[in-house]
Predict the structure.
Amino acid sequence: MLRAAIGAAGAFVLVTVASVARPELAALEALPILLLMGLLAGVFARRLRVSAPASAAVAEAE
């Protein structure tokens, strides 16, 4: 999923450059941003789920 987020970030750069060259493509700039935000939310949620059991065990020990 992280690789997909990196790909979406690259697509954002390419779409932004293309929209500078061709202003009619400016409306497409939002698509890679939305995709990137969704993917990053998924990456962070997955990382939080993985680390949650460890932090819960620490809280119980205290």
